[in-house]
Design brief:
The chain has about 80 residues and is mainly α. The chain has four helices and no strands. It has a single domain (about 10-85), classed as Orthogonal Bundle (Arc Repressor Mutant, subunit A). It is about 70% helix and about 0% strand. It is elongated.
Length: about 80
């Protein structure tokens, strides 16, 4: 018996977009992701924005970020992660 997963919802896509862009999704989840963006204009735009953001931020040397700003970002993400479980 083959179990199929339900179609990906927009909210789920937002949660796994980084894994998608970094190639960390399973083959099945990648197919679900790609089926979703093929039919969802909003999520397609979001994925393209994230691709551009990742490409641009990848060019910023880590030592160019002030320590105070780096800590503020890390704190914000720690708080966000604890809130989302």
């Amino acid at each position: 018996m083959i179990l199929t997963r339900p179609p990906l919802k927009c909210r789920e896509l937002v949660e796994i977009v980084t894994d998608y862009l970094e190639g960390d999704l399973s083959r099945r989840d990648r197919r679900r992701f790609e089926r979703h963006i093929a039919g969802c204009e909003g999520c397609t735009s979001y994925v393209e924005q994230m691709r551009l953001t990742k490409r641009l931020l990848g060019r910023i040397p880590e030592d160019s970020i002030p320590a105070e700003a780096r800590e503020a970002l890390l704190d914000a993400f720690r708080d966000w992660r604890s809130e989302t479980g």
